[in-house]
Structures are given as structure tokens and as C-alpha cells.
Amino acid sequence: MDKQQTYDFLTASGVEYEVTEHEAVYNMEELDAVDLPYPGDDAKNLFVRDDKKRNYYLITVRGDKRVDLKEFRKTYETRPLRFASEDDLMAIMKLIAGAVTPLGLLNDDERKVQLYIDEDFLAGEGRIGVHPNDNTATVWLQAKDLIRLVEEHGNAVHVITV
């Protein structure tokens, strides 16, 4: 799904959302320069794999949080973790670096990526901001709706404390 197809899918799925168009951003530092309506709800996404390339994980946390991959490995009993390659990202989620998003899991035909999402997104307003499979916009939606869509697609979802 490209950006417009993602919007169409969200609409067809009955998901309420808001879009902020912006210049292409490739990392959280560049995104900090963008005037976002809900900066505290913006997501940072880490696409990682185990050392055998058997298991892939998308770790989604608030933009101001850090993820200790060694601690993640210990807590969730995975093999050693590394960042997945741009080739893996394109092959599995049809995304380029800088456009990583949980909505990319809807392109994961083999359902091989597990989503680990920070429980903080479900607190307060319950809102999360993610790219719509393109890094020139941020789509704001309810985290529970995002989780539902990913689960309905068939990818495993884990709500975690970071």
C-alpha cells in the first residue's frame, strides 16, 4: 500500500484519522523540526531481526524514548538482535528507510514481523502518530485501532512497557 492506498484502507476500515503533510523526514531529529500538532504522540520505529534472520520485530515507542536492544532481548527471550537491512525492509514491508511504520505490516504478506508497541500509546488520549507508508506525512489515529488492524491482518502484536 502506498500513502493514498493507506488512507483509503483506513477509511474503509472505519478508522478515524488526521493527516499532517510535511517534508520527507528520515529520522527523529529531522522530524523534530516539523511543526506537528501532537508531538508527544509521535512514534519511533525500530525494525530489527534476530541473528539468524528467522524472526523480525518492529518495536514502536514514543519518539522521546530509547530502546535497549540487549534488555529487549533478555525480557522477550529472543536471539541476539540487529537492525534489519534496507533490503529486508523493502522485501518484507515494501518500505524505504525513514518510512518505517506499523502500517507497513499491512504489506507483510507472510506475516513474519511481530509488532511490539509501547503501552504508553494506549494511555491518555490513546493517540499515535505514524507514517502512512511514506515519510512525507504523519497520520494520527487511535493506538487501539492500529493494533486492531495489525492483528486483523495476522501479525502478532505485543503491548509492552518501555
Walk me through what this model shows:
- By secondary structure, the protein is an alpha/beta fold.
- It has one domain (3-160): YbaK protein.
- The protein contains five helices and eight strands.
- It has helices spanning 3-12, 28-32, 69-76, 86-93, 143-153, and strands at 17-21, 43-50, 56-62, 81-83, 113-118, 127-130, 137-142, 157-160.
- The strands form two sheets. A five-stranded mixed sheet has the order 4-2-3-5-8. A three-stranded antiparallel sheet has the order 1-7-6.
- A hairpin with a 5-residue loop joins strand 2 and strand 3 (56-62).
- The longest helix is centred in the C-terminal third of the chain and has 11 residues, at 143-153.
Percentage of residues in strands: 25-35%
Number of helices: 5
Strand order of the largest sheet: 4-2-3-5-8
Average of pLDDT:
94
CATH class: Alpha Beta
Q: What Rg do the Cα atoms give?
A: 15 Å
Instruction: Kindly state the percentage of residues in helix.
Output: 25-40%
Helix and strand content put the structural class at alpha/beta
- By CATH's scheme, which homologous superfamily applies? YbaK/aminoacyl-tRNA synthetase-associated domain
Distance between the termini: 29 Å
